[in-house]
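Q: A reviewer asked whether we had any structural model of the full assembly, not just the individual parts. We don't, so I'm hoping you can provide one. Inputs are below.
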Amino acid sequence: MKVPFSWLKQYVDIDVSAQELQDKLFGCGFEVEELIDLGAEISKVVVGVVTEAVPQEGTHLHICKVDCGEYGHDIQISTGAPNVYVGMHTPAALDGSTLPGGVKIKAKPLMGVESNGMLCSGEELGLNDDLFPGAEVYGLLDLPKDTVPGTPIQPVVGLDDYIFDISVTANRADCQSVLGIAREVAAVLGKPLKMPATDYTTSETTEPRLSITVEAKDLCPRYIGHYVRNITPGESPRWMKRQLALCGLRSISNVVDITNYVMLEIGQPMHAFDMDTLESCQIIVRRAAEGEKITTLDGKEFTLTPQNLVICDGHKPVALAGVMGGLNSEIKPETTQLLFESAKFARDNIRRTARGLGQNTDASSHYEKGISEYTTELGMARALHLIQELGCGEVTATHIDVSAGAPREGKHFEARISKINAILGITVPTEAILDILNRLNFQVTLDADGDLMQVVAPRYREDIEVGEPDLAEEIIREYGYDHIHPTFLQNATVTSGGLNPDQKARAKAKRTMCAQGFYEASTLAFYADADLDALHIAPDAPERNVIRIMNPISSNLTIMRSLLAPSLLNVVVDNLKKGNEAGRLFELSNIYIPHQQPLTELPEERLHLGFIAFGAGEDFFQMKGAVEALGEAFGVHFTFARAENTPYLHPGISADIFCEGEKIGSFGKLANEVTNALKLPKDSRDNQKIFLGEIDYPAMLAHAPTGIRYCPVPEFPAVRRDLALVAPEEITCGALIEEMQRACPSVEKIELFDVYRSEQIGAGKKSMAFTLHFAAKDKALTPEEVDRFVKKILGNLKFKLGVEIR
Amino acid sequence: MEEKINALRAELEADRASVHNKEELSAFWQKYLSKNGSVTGLTKSLRDVPKEDRPAAGKLINACKVWAEEQYQALSDEIDAAELAARNKAEAIDITLPAVRRPVGSLHPITLVKNQIVDIFAGMGFDVFDGPEIEDDDHNFTRLNVPKNHPARDMQDTFYVAPDIELRTQTSGGQIRVMDQQKPPIKVLSPGRVFRSDSDATHSPMFHQMEGLVVDRGITLCDLQGMLDKFVQAMFGPEVKTRLRPSYFPFTEPSVEVDVFCFECGGKGCPLCKHSGWIEVLGAGMVHQNVLRNCGIDPEVYSGFAFGIGIERIAMLKYGINNIGLMFENDLRFLKQFQD
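A: Here is a predicted structure for the entire assembly that you could use as a starting point for your response.
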């Protein structure tokens, strides 16, 4: 929201500087994002009077003598401008001066003649005709003769002004105008507000044929039309052009300028229809028919639906309501009579139409933020006043006002001063409260008890809801937040707090992974089908049942993830590309499982623990160690079997992880075919050792014992025996250990310490050496007992697996 | 006898110099101190000493024996020390060779900051509530006083996964879920991922928030500032103070933007605080009465405040990170800097 300082001053006697006003506005909730000093880039440019202008022979230059008052009465400056003349008052940029755009002016010879500066055109000062008449003339800016030599140029050409670029919060639609901000300025400075003139007189003329019908009252709660005739097209006055220009609008013609001016000043988008183009002299506000078309002022054609509101004449749409007028009813230079429209449209409908059609305008932006009917009335009155003030038309007596019946008064409610103070936690003096509310145009009567107030909110404050909190905010933003004194829950109940067991377990899982050398990653919760494709996830795999984002921000972020593996693999590829050759990463994050497609209820969000390691030093057994360490931290015992149904893992170097027989995850080496397709340079790709895994975290946690219970340490020492076994290659270490444990319950631990192959042992065979620890809870085992155990074990191994002692 | 002993002493002293190792020490012992050794032999030769001279000779012999044993012990100690020194020398290694270890691993800066915030508020009696990341419209907007078509919905660009189910745009929905389950007194934090369809240098489509909610009797705006003062002091340093200024959130009234006094420059003005002396850190306010009513809590009896902290924002301020994108790139050179 851009507001010129000079414009504000029309409504409030501002006795503070622009910088001070910026601070005041900030304090009461209006952050000035930028305070633009229009003359900031100009320095040492003053009014100069040309006292001599001698053409320099052989050049297009004039060598001038310029009277610059206190800066020198006889300064020699050359100019190439053809319109220079003796007696001209014109801006003189002196030696060492600056101009907009970072231009620096220095004294230097021009065509061999010393020139001590530069005489300026309007454009060189950043002016145009709207800001200062004559600024666009080719040549020097011809200033009025009453300007005094040596005067700084900014005030002379109106550049001693500021633009406040104000951030207005979404609730304050009433401040989307110069008048709206002026109301706040008046309140914060404690000054009266001078309202813009809205009086006008009507002629006797009427147009009895004119009718206005609002069919869609829900989308158009208020529609005011006024017939104006005998339009005399022409230019707008200088003050209006200048104010439009300061807000970035070019002057077009008096009538069009009035509509723009009222939108900026009052915040009411106005529209003017060429009366001669309205068939049957009718206005009908209705939903568009399916497929109905309109061409707007900018020449764009739109095909509409009943979602769009249109203004129609007796036959056809003549405006896209609240967005833009139709080309067919546009005001043209030859227009002689018109219908002014000032209306209130439902903001969400205008927003949907503007967004849906991609047609965002100043008008739609105002309507989307919200217009009060007060503004609608004021806008029309102001426009009609301006028609008369500018003398550019006859305001007829035909005024049609169609209303859905909203009350024409502000919200009335009761509020207690004690409750306001209770919200704030301080005691604001009652006089201060009454004064502030009065300054903000609330009508307040205090009941005899000195506490209860009868309040009527200003009509334009549609954001005010009934009750004390809204008033508390109004009061404290004017009274000042520096009156709030920090207290520490003076009245509150003491509560205990902290993490629950689940939250603590998650923290432990993360710490355990860190202790295994993994760094925590944070990746986006969404990716694309292509990420699942890259991992060879089958089309009918459960991971393909994904939640799709209806309005994705990009084509690679379209589905909610069903696995962490793709995210982590992408992280590793990114790291490799950056030259990080090794590392370990993990993430404990949700995956999302829909209960049905399309979603009708919230999906399951399930924590997965994903982990990945890459680099020359990594191998399967290091990962297995990390997995086992995680199990140990949670008191769960993992067993492993060759992985099944995990297409992104190497079939021979991967394992499923089981907890008491339930599969809770898998891990292993990245499948060769996936590795080969990674987007990496071929030589680095071929040598990659990437290991990854994913654990269904709640499934693991379900097996974790709750609480700690001490178990006595064994009283009797274990007896160790070493056995070297010769087994066929296909028999796994796990199978041997399992069989040995089954054969003898007194084996409390079995450790592999060597694997050996040789000709002597024979082809297709291996020797595996184990240390067996035997113990009993209640006694020390004798060597004879242990011998019997070993015999039993060896017997079982031979009988069941064909494995013999070496 | 005395001559004999002196000669023997001289011989032993001469021999001593040639003992350098255990074998030579053993030979030395054999020669002098074993059963057949010459010092031991002195006792036998006492027989040849006249009887009256025997006590004196005996004393001399004993003294010589003690002396010889001392010599032997000293030699033995020397040799042990020398051998130990030689072994130690042989075993010595270059301790500047690289260590054998794996990296320690560390938590992501977002987790670190989240944990710190939880620690600060847990000490003040706050529980932690984890709400769903995919949320229904009711909890994410409607019951937070943002009905359909409310202009505040424009403040947040929402990802939808079904007509009334969206990726939560804020952790504020946690407020509703907590107040549905629990009646005052309530002190709760609701941390987590939030999503907005916005992506540029300062925005990520996913980021993290920490919602805080207090509902009890007699809670005031002063209490809000008091608690936030405690928070920013614990997070940024004991001298840091907050400043409140008016703002707008649909679910709080009054609403405030909370700035902290710039801890980088002490308020003098620096690039971090954009030369204003203050840094915007979070939004907060008194819980809107409609929100309390929507959860069956009587605003005539109870009041409360809520605040929403951007975790990335705090992490960036605290660790001097200048680009939010770094948080989600997971470059190990970045991640390794957050040992805490």
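A: Points you may want to mention in the reply: Chain A touches chain B through 91 residues (CB under 8 Å). The longest strand of chain A covers residues 43-55.
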